[in-house]
Amino acid sequence: MSTPSYFDLALDAGTGVARLTLNRPERMNTMDPGFFPALRDAIRRLDDEGRTRVLILDSTGKHFSAGMSLEVFAGGLPMLDVSTARRRQAFQTGLRRLMACFDALDEARFPVICAVQGGCIGGGLDLAAACDIRLCSADAFFTVQEIHIGMVADLGSLQRLPKIVPQGVARQMAYTGERVDAERALAIGLVNAVLPDPGALAIHANELAAQIAAKSPLAIAGSKLALGIARDHGTSESLAQMALLQSALFDTGEMAQAIKAWKSKQPADFEPLAPLE
């Protein structure tokens, strides 16, 4: 599989576990405009192929990601020009396209486990918030960095954080840019587990991914879709959607295979998801 320079990407065909590792530690895994479509295209390619059952998103180096490179804001990029109404309209369109690159994580049929070590800063937090599950090492911290440079965080943190952590906590993070350390991140529900060091973090992420990958990929994809609908809609509407979703995905053959594997404590040989044409 070809890999962009921003990250390494690999898929274990036997287990269906994919791993996307940010690989620019010398730049603290910062992002520039090319990062976003590279990430989007990689996620969509995995989704299109249908063989991925779960993705681990991790990093190399001291920090998970320091977010958008400050050079982007200082470089005079045309998309940052808001001097006229037409340029502002173009700015809005360009920004929405950047947002959609992180939406790809949310829209993928497979769950995404984000394993954070060190700083998860600014755009790094936008990225982590778009994942299904977050884990971290004891040295991790999370911050809405944008407030420190006089701008509003605009790639998803302010929209997703209030649905992950309590509303007041999300607002405090957004208004102060304070660093939320690993233990507090666990206490507020931002992460599911804190591991002693990056090595232990990798082991835990692998074990969790293996648990998910062993389940029916059809049921996992349906569960992710149902959870997303419930997050973004009211209970009544979500239940109505659930009835339609279940009628589309209910498969007694898949269930029989899952029950047999569960009772025998042996792995099931589930079919991968259908590729997207």
Radius of gyration: 19 Å
Distance from N terminus to C terminus (CA atoms, Å) equals 19 Å
**Uncertain stretches:** none
Please name the CATH architecture of the largest domain.
Alpha-Beta Complex
* CATH-assigned fold name of the largest domain: 2-enoyl-CoA Hydratase, Chain A, domain 1
Explain what the structure shows.
The structure is a single chain. It contains eleven helices and nine strands. By secondary structure, it is an alpha/beta fold. Helix 1 links the parallel strand 2 and strand 3. The radius of gyration is 19 Å and the shape is globular. The model has no long low-confidence stretch (mean pLDDT 95).
Summarize the helices and strands and which ones pair or pack.
Layout (H helix, E strand, L loop, with lengths): L6 E6 L4 E6 L12 H15 L4 E6 L10 H5 L10 H23 L4 E5 L2 E3 L1 H7 L3 E5 L3 E3 L13 H4 L6 H10 L3 E2 H6 L5 E3 L2 H16 L3 H16 L2 H15 L2 H13 L13
Parallel strand pairs: 2-3, 3-4, 4-6, 5-7, 6-9
Antiparallel strand pairs: 1-2, 7-8
Helix pairs in contact: 1-3, 9-10
Summarize the structure.
The protein contains eleven helices and nine strands. With 277 residues, the chain is α/β, with parallel strands linked by helices.
Which short descriptors sum up this protein?
47% helix; 2 domains; 6-stranded mixed sheet; 3-stranded mixed sheet; 2-enoyl-CoA Hydratase, Chain A, domain 1; globular; 11 helices; alpha/beta; 277 residues
